[in-house]
Amino acid sequence: MFFRLLNRRNLKKLIYALKHENEGFVLSNMKTFISESKVRSEYKIDEEKVNESRLEEECQVIRSHFDVDYYRSEYPEVKNSDDPVLHYCTKGWRKGYDPSHSFSTVYYLENNTDVLNAKINPFYHFIMEGQVEGRLGKLPNQRQRKILDKLKSLDQKVADCRLPHLPSKSKVPQIKKAIVELSGSVRIFSFSHDNYNREVGGVQFCIRREQRSFQDIRADYIHISPVQFLPRISYEYDYLIRLMINGKDQFILNWKEFIDLMKSLKSLKTNYLIVHSLYGHNPSNLIEFYKNLKIESSFFWIHDYASICANHNLLRNGLEYCNSPSIDSNSCSICIYSSDRK
Q: Is residue 238 a contact partner of residue 255, using CB atoms and an 8 Å limit?
């Protein structure tokens, strides 16, 4: 490869390239740069001094544009780095790391071959020259494109949630004994999607407060959740459930065992039903529970949009708020969650 040295700036670029000729690039869809060892032998210069000067200049120029928090969160190896900017200038851009969410190193190099061939720090070039020349720092709508590239169907999401092993079931007589021995005159039956004592979130926090509030008035709080969490309702009938009594005792049993047990005890207490989430539950099962147990009053919490769509945030394909369009509309049909609404 032949370099024509026209000025001092080109000389610096040459020495910068020589300094890093063996480090290579780990960038998708890029060829390894051609070695410039012949050029090295022709020019005897103080390359170390020139490179240090150039590196210092690069760091100084990009520092105010560099998102340190983003860089550390995206790339674990830099999490404890004293100077992420220096890391990017010496190693990061060669690995295709992005200095911020608004600039794509790989995109810039793939679409600006002059920068690629000269082995110039792409972010430095963009700040100094690229943006003035109208070059793009990233693919338009790149964040949305990344989300869509990683998008999974609802069935795939459900499959990813499946537990490799399910816990052993408890003995029904043991469960019956624990319920019969409850001293409260009122029983609160609460349904949600997971173990509120183990998981963390707004719904779980609400249930914990609810449980303590009912216990303060001497009401017994029985919580039912599916053992297998699902990001949507269940279409099975006899799935495994977890029974938690007053926030402590936990029992595992099938739904049919539970409903049969409740039928045998329905006349003993005054019962209230509270539904926090239908995720993981079969709605028909809750209707069966309501019909076969003497329920004084029932309540349905609206924590989010999960009661009308498996996507509790109503974000169409994880990108934008959809405003809950008609199920038969095109706006709904293009979303991965549309089939579950139907």
A: yes
**220-226/295-300 β-pairing:** unpaired
Q: At 162, phi and psi to the nearest 5? A: -60, 130
Q: Give the C-alpha separation, 117 to 113, whole Å.
A: 6
Long-range contacts at 334-341 (CB < 8 A, ≥ 24 apart): 335/311, 336/151, 336/152, 336/153, 336/154, 337/154, 337/309, 337/310, 337/311, 339/154, 340/154, 340/232, 340/233, 340/309, 340/310, 341/308, 341/309, 341/310
Burial class for 216, CB neighbours closer than 10 Å (0-12, 13-18, 19+) = exposed
Residue 333 exposed, middle or buried by CB count within 10 Å (0-12, 13-18, 19+) = middle
Q: 316-341 pLDDT, tens per residue? A: 998 889 999 999 898 899 899 998 88
Q: How far apart are CA 278 and CA 289, in angstroms?
A: 14
Residues 166-183: tens digit of each pLDDT:
888 988 899 999 988 888
